[in-house]
Design a protein that fits this description.
With 274 residues, this protein is mainly alpha-helical. The protein has helices at 3-21, 24-51, 61-89, 91-95, 102-135, 141-167, 171-196, 205-221, 226-238, 242-270.
Length: 274
């Protein structure tokens, strides 16, 4: 990428970042994530009060996971509609009459959404620090590692959302595509977990084959779904395995690069018109 493309990317980044940062929806998503986490924390503290015992090395990790899921859902949606919205409004075609290329445009969008995620993580860190101060639940090093890992997991979510957006021409089709893809991932995961709940001896032979086939599909999805990287990344923090922690960061970076290069390729082939 040459200096001219970098300048274009910087201009696009600044334009979209400030617009999104001052938007009402961004803070609604943050408030919703903290509200749900507070509800979970309240139940958690109530259970401690009833049983008068706490055995957990990472008491804030599950509320953090829920917070990250809600923030990630918001980011994947705004990434998923960011290109189709400009394509539908015609601004994308106008931009490409200038020095804008598919690469500079998409990488500008990527860094904009990634920085929005990092700002959201900053608010999240402050929120959990205050929770820790008011409840005496430890703000552990594990939580800090989980927050650092979250930067790379948000990168996966953003690159996946941008890829979906390059495939679609309108906002409605982008949203429907995201709902269909993410819904399929969740449905397969739910079905596979349900089949795992049965004893092997209680299943008929055809159902055993179905369960085996589902296990292969589930393994494949675990490398495609950005939310699978979220679960694996946070699991590596709980397992306290430094090599696994670093491996998940590398996986997330590779995932993001693959989907960004695919996005640039698809957009170059598809063009800018809706």
């Amino acid at each position: 990428m040459n200096m001219r493309a970098l300048r274009v990317m910087k201009v696009l980044f600044k334009r979209d970042f400030l617009y999104s940062l001052y938007s009402f929806g961004y803070y609604v998503a943050l408030f919703a994530s903290f509200f749900v986490s507070s509800f979970i924390l309240k139940n958690f503290l109530d259970s401690i009060g009833e049983e008068d015992i706490l055995v957990s090395a990472y008491p804030l990790n599950y509320p953090l996971y829920i917070t990250l899921v809600i923030i990630s859902l918001y980011l994947v949606i705004i990434s998923g509609i960011s290109i189709s919205r400009e394509r539908e409004q015609g601004t994308l075609e106008v931009l490409f009459y200038g020095p804008v290329t598919s690469g500079s445009f998409l990488w500008g969008k990527y860094f904009k959404d990634l920085c929005l995620g990092i700002v959201a993580l900053g608010f999240t860190a402050v929120y959990f620090y205050l929770v820790s101060a008011f409840t005496n639940i430890g703000f552990t090093m594990g939580l800090v590692k989980a927050l650092i890992m979250s930067i790379f997991l948000i990168s996966c979510v953003v690159s996946f959302g941008l890829f979906i957006s390059t495939l679609t021409g309108r906002i409605r089709s982008s949203v429907l595509a995201l709902v269909a893809v993410l819904g399929s991932f969740l449905a397969i995961q739910f079905a596979y977990n349900a089949l795992l709940g049965f004893e092997k001896e209680s299943l008929s032979v055809p159902m055993l084959y179905v369960r085996q086939a589902m296990s292969y599909v589930f393994r494949g999805i675990s490398w495609i779904s950005p939310f699978a990287y979220l679960s694996r990344g946070l699991d590596s923090v709980v397992l306290e395995n430094p090599l696994l922690y670093l491996a998940n960061i590398v996986y997330a970076l590779v995932y993001s690069l693959i989907f960004m290069f695919l996005s640039v390729y698809v957009m170059s082939k598809k063009g800018v018109k809706a």
